[in-house]
Amino acid sequence: MSKELEAFLEYIAIIRSLSLKTVDAYRSDLHEIELTSKKALIDMDSLSIFSVLSSINNKRTLNRKLSALNSFLDFCYQHQYDSSLSKFSLSKLPKSLPKYLSYESIMRSLQSIDISSWIGMRDYALIVFLYATGTRISECLEVREEDIQGQWLRVRHGKGDKERYIPIAQEAIDALRRYQDAIPIRHNALWVNYRGQSLSRITAFKICHKYLGTSPHTLRHSYATELILGGADLRVVQELLGHASLLTTQIYTHVQKHHLHETVLSCHPMSKEAI
What we know:
57% of the residues lie in helices and 4% in strands. By secondary structure, the protein is mostly helical.
């Protein structure tokens, strides 16, 4: 690994305080380019970069690597490392609607959970909690009992360490209390496994996939989608989701437009086929 890349990784880890997961992702993407080309990034030209990346067919993967390169080039410019490379333009991605589940389908799936055991109560409560709060799975697993204040959830470890408050539906509170009353193990964490240890992201994913056939993040999309379709203001949804930029939240306006389009097609007489 080149000394410039090592300096960049140290910079984003210590000065910018990016998460270990993010730093590892940058390390993996950029070091892979150096290994493939057998050159330091700073000594490469655009042709060499494109030669290394030409085999990547997935545009999202390509954009991730180009974004990492651009961050590295910004660092080189700020710290006066000499590089002939210019920043790269990212590939345009087709707009896609976020996958979401309807309230009815989630409720049907919940009926398949055996709540005669505390593990079943936990699985039920976890799914309801994620759908009722729209929290990221990392935020959900960080919740402690003291973070639930009446019908409000205090998210202490949001993205960028931003704190926010989210109202919780009574149904989620009731499911959570039943789980807490049944759990035989006391722990600082709210969500625990059968050993009494904090529930892992992998286990949370398995729970959602077992009963819903999808990931915890789909419940976050479902939460936001139902709010938008119900008429919630976009900025309110931004605050509830903890998005730093309104641009991130605006993807849900496409869901709203899609819903309106489908409604017109199915309900307006001029949209129906002539009999």
